[in-house]
Specification:
Strand content: 15-25%
CATH superfamily: P-loop containing nucleotide triphosphate hydrolases
Structural class: alpha/beta
CATH class: Alpha Beta
Strand order of the largest sheet: 2-3-1-4-5
Order of helices and strands: EHHEEHEHEHH
Largest sheet: 5 strands, mixed
Length: 175
């Protein structure tokens, strides 16, 4: 196994509401990075990060699951987190060790309860976030409305600009 020094390792938590597509996104990222040879699917029970029998049967992530890929000589540790309220503590734990969060939002349903909770947790931790709007092909025009709501939310609740700022305890508001 290849050894990476600290500047070449990134921990990224995939967070969001249950059913938003976090696990499928993780599978696609791993496939695109050539970390796996076959694209896994949640519906078929072949997703890399959902390997527990209960997770496969329920088609929901029940605990945080790590996976990794190399991208441009950097090891990216993906942490696929559960989106159900019962397992939110696993999501929070993953966010505490992450350098950044990918907030996955279903474009059809928009920002749901857990989406708001992970956004607030990321802000409290000073965790940089990127929002991935999933299932745009099914949204039927809702993406423009979501984009306006998200832009307003981001402007009122900015976190740090980079992971190095977060480690130093600096936020966008403290500059």
């Amino acid at each position: 196994m290849k050894v990476y020094d600290a500047p070449h390792i990134r921990n990224v938590a995939l967070v969001g509401h249950s059913g938003a597509g976090k696990t499928q996104l993780a599978s696609a990222m791993l496939f695109d990075a050539d970390a796996v040879s076959r694209l896994g699917h949640v519906d078929e029970g072949t997703a890399v990060t959902d390997f527990d029998e209960e997770e496969i049967a329920r088609r929901h992530t029940l605990s945080a699951s790590p996976a990794y890929a190399e991208w441009q000589k950097t090891k990216i540790n993906l942490i696929d987190t559960p989106g159900m309220a019962n397992f939110f503590s696993d999501t929070c734990s993953a966010m505490r060790v992450a350098d950044a969060a990918v907030v996955v939002v279903d474009a059809v349903h928009g920002a749901e309860v857990i989406t708001e909770r992970v956004w607030d947790e990321a802000a409290a931790l000073g965790l940089p976030c990127v929002v991935v709007l999933n299932r745009l092909d099914r949204a039927r025009g809702k993406s423009a409305t979501f984009a306006r709501v998200a832009a307003k939310r981001v402007r009122t609740n900015r976190g740090p600009h980079s992971a190095s700022d977060r480690r130093r305890g600096r936020t966008a508001r403290s500059r």
